[in-house]
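Reply to dn_fold:

You asked what the input looked like. This is it:
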Amino acid sequence: MVSRLFSLIRKEFIQIRRDPRTLVLVLVIPIMQLFLLGYAATNDVRNVPLAVFDQDHGPAARQLLDAYRAADYFRLAMEVNSEAELRSVIDNSRARVGLIIPPDYTDQIKSNGSAAVVFVLDGSDPTVASTALSSALLIGQAHSTSILTQRLERRGQAAVFTPPVEVRTQVWYNPDMVSAHFMIPGVIGTILYALTSILTATAIVRERERGTIEQLIVTPIRSWELIVGKLVPYVVLGFLNALEVLAIGHWWFGVPVRGNLFLIAGLSALFLLTSLGIGLLASTFANTQQEAMLTVWMTLLPGIFLSGFFFPLEAMPPALNVIAYLFPLRYFLKIIRSLLLKGVGAEALTADIAALVLFGFSLMAIASLRFRKRLD
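and this is what came back:
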């Protein structure tokens, strides 16, 4: 039995080696996905181009501009001479935000009065607009507090100005709130989910397309041995992909690995049961490799979008949040992010691990039963 199983696994590895283009794609695609998502898929908005319509040109106006220039959220792209020109540069996307300073701004500040400036935002991109809006308000409030403190110092009343409430913030696990630290653990989950299920489904259907599966059936190989022999090579590939993403994410992007590596590997193997089960199940419905890929993609797309990989689950409508419980990737992303970023133990992830156990063994059982039926 052992020799038959190892012979089948060896045969599968030989078939993988004979298709070097697919093997290269399997090893290269995760790295491409990692760098694209690590650098491009980020909400860390910086250097937003700012157009300024300064009608004052006084020292107070220059101090205000210095406050916005000092923060790396905005980049002073240009100065304009009218509101019409400001609208034009925003329409042409040469600037994403605009600052209008009134003519009497310095006079109002010097007279210990209050002055209003207008901050115009291009709302066509809500992500950039919301970040720019909150940043503009925070910078403006900080500058306003600085002016008020200077006024009180001139009067000798600086000690009187003590805010009644002081909010001191602490950000745990990702202090700099780097988006890559959130995205890269998700890449590990999507790779294990997508590549192993697609490769498993197409590899089994390929045997049926070539007519070689009938040759395997007439041999003494049992159906479970055939299943294990076909799946083991893709388990190895899946772990290689996850390992290369984890290594590059840690050494290149600085993603911390705070959890136990053996626990990470064990729970990743548990999650592999679900992706392998999906691939095996898809192979029982498909007669061609194209059909197998399309069948797998029917589960992959909603699974990825409803897993919290791109969009937070808390922002989804309640109905979609309920549907998201039907996809195992949701649970694994919470597990892998908690293990890598928080360094928690298994006791903090009991519910998610139980869900993966239920999904993994159920999918493998159903897929194996159907696979045996197709062999018969």
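The chain has two domains: 2-41+178-375, 48-160.
Hope that clears it up.
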